[in-house]
């Protein structure tokens, strides 16, 4: 590698190092997902990255912004009377698949951005009722102010309670009811379409014992619009967090055991380094000293110019085919800096002095400061803000049954051992592979058994059909998980091919579809995408040139890859039933 090439490799990583160390006072919060050209009509809706997996533009005839349940009922009734398709958009729309797309200019978007208030808090009964558009940040802060804690949540607090429930979002735990937020739902109010005799809209109130609650608390948005959610909380508590780095020689053994040892346990696997970062995270008494804070490094704001420059350099490296070994060498300082910065944790909200970090649940469980800093005119922003041409990546989430996880991890390690360096190009080295624990759920579209959830972030080109370096690594891992080990894609984080036939893996699917038929007999809250993933009509696979590069299909011929760039459809290296786009060099 020449000196100039080494410098090019170092550019995006040096920029990211600086961004990690900076604490920006201001930040332009992420934009809302709905944009209209004429007031509230002639609209488009997207997600936080500005692109759905198939890169299509999702259009809608109009958008409604109800402020009360009464206005929400009126919005649903108006569309139902006109037999218009409806879909819900949340404040930031973090789901990658096309869950919010109504399917064209004859459809309506109903935004919950203004349904964002606390309805009531019953401290004695430890119950909290909020509107469905409330973001997780506000929910956990309000709970903490009342002396209560939401036991578990996702790690990013920019999700709304309605949105995270619709996709089964979760934290990490096998203890008690587990780490999925929907396990703590004891009631909700949902507005569905109705007959003319009922004004075309019906408010359904589902209590803890209502048989339909198991359908509504993970629903993909196809039943109606959730208006309010009631959560069972716990007395305010603190957590004690420490991260321990070890070699990965016994990872296959630890993966099944670690979640039983610590209430909030997770793991981050760094395959190219042969290391695992174990999260030792347990509940402690509220009187324990400490006011720790989680401020995840990659969810902090950074200067816009810095983010754009880092992305431009990253794109250049991908296009030039930089050697994987050189990418690994350049990435190690970044990983070391993240570790020295304690992954964004501080003991007092300002500085890190050592482990354990002890703090209140609402200060530890989730973060995302780039979304709540003062507006600065887009001088800085969240790294993925679609307006600044910064980070642009895939996020694949999938789960494997806890009983099968050791064998799956062993297979991943076998793949890594063939050439560890290619994981530096195939997997984002800032994040590694995140492993979280999720408990079996009674929800019809929840996890049918205890499982380990795997999260992988990796480069995505803004040009259709442009392959990413060593794309076959992640693609083989994911096909192995979904096909060989019967895994499940995360409802809100994956690409089209992962959802093909997925509904057959849910024992409660028939019951869910039965509730759907009763709540929405005309399919007004359904879309082409939801019909495909629920097995009602069609397939989520899109078979065309370069479809496998885009994750729209699994390749069956070379044209599904990028032969003009040297990528051809070949069997996997460890799981030979996989079909992946591999770079073939002379």
Short description:
With 586 residues, this protein is an alpha+beta fold. It has helices at 3-21, 69-81, 136-145, 161-166, 213-216, 251-261, 304-320, 324-340, 361-364, 405-418, 422-426, 471-484, 509-519, 528-533, and strands spanning 34-38, 41-45, 58-64, 85-89, 104-111, 118-122, 127-131, 148-149, 185-193, 201-207, 225-232, 234-235, 238-247, 266-270, 275-284, 293-294, 302-303, 345-346, 357-360, 380-381, 393-401, 433-438, 451-459, 488-489, 567-571, 579-583. α6 crosses α10 (405-418).
Account of the protein in words:
It is an enzyme of class 1 (oxidoreductase). Residues 56-236 form the FAD-binding PCMH-type domain. Pathway: Cofactor biosynthesis; L-ascorbate biosynthesis. This is L-gulonolactone oxidase. GO terms for molecular function: D-arabinono-1,4-lactone oxidase activity; FAD binding; L-gulonolactone oxidase activity; oxidoreductase activity. The chain has 586 residues and is an alpha+beta fold. It folds into two domains: 118-235, Uridine Diphospho-n-acetylenolpyruvylglucosamine Reductase, domain 3 (2-Layer Sandwich), CATH 3.30.465; 238-499 and 542-583, Vanillyl-alcohol Oxidase, Chain A, domain 3, CATH 3.40.462. Helices cover 26% and strands 24% of the residues. It has an eight-stranded antiparallel sheet. A five-stranded mixed sheet has the order 1-2-3-5-4, with helices on one face. Strands 6-7-11-9-10 form a five-stranded antiparallel sheet. β14 and β15 form a beta hairpin. α1 (3-21) runs antiparallel to α7, α1 (3-21) packs parallel to α8 (324-340) and α6 (251-261) crosses α10 (405-418). The longest helix has 19 residues, at 3-21. The relative contact order is 0.14.
